[in-house]
From TrEMBL:
The gene is LOC113725284. Its main location: endoplasmic reticulum. It is a multi-pass membrane protein. InterPro entries: Reticulon, Reticulon-like. It is found in: Endoplasmic reticulum membrane. The keyword Transmembrane applies. It holds the Pfam family Reticulon. This is Reticulon-like protein. It comes from Coffea arabica. The keyword Transmembrane helix applies.
Amino acid sequence: MENSDDPCDVVVNGDENNRHDSVPSTSTSSSYKLFGRQRSVHQMMGGGKAADVILWRRRRVSCGLMMVATVAWFLFERSGLSFLSVCCDILLILIVLRFLRANYAVLRERQLQSLPELVLSEEMVVIALWLLSVIGSLISFCTLAYIGTIIFITLPALYDKFEDRVDRYAGVIHQKFSKHYKIVDESVISRIPRNLRRHKDL
């Protein structure tokens, strides 16, 4: 019987070293995938130019984005400018430009591209605002935005690079939690009286 280095005892399809970074692999390397995903990381990110930048397939653009974020964070922290007021000014300029473009399109009788519609549930917005308020009370919003940018541009790339290992260890953790949950669930069910269990089954 062959010895496997896989702590999860999962059958691995293909060699890990033969993985192509430029083309997303559709074959699953293990039976367990993080977050139960069925597609590759590149496809989950949209599969376009933005996904290439986030996954460091366009290294110059990714490095440039990190440098711009670092310089902007340093300037905001050192200059004393309010990050929120600068964001409001930028959004106001973008709204004015959008308004001028819409008027220009009407004069030229051209059709504007529709903006993508973002639908969020009320609970999600409330939870996000509450988390931002809690974290914002600890650190500045500029630092929070900078940390979020760095995490957003590094974690997906690291996961894409070490996808097989992360999924393997996540599978081990998932199996252990499942075993413990099953033990706890059986112990709780065993304490329920039989007449209540029969009523529950009915």
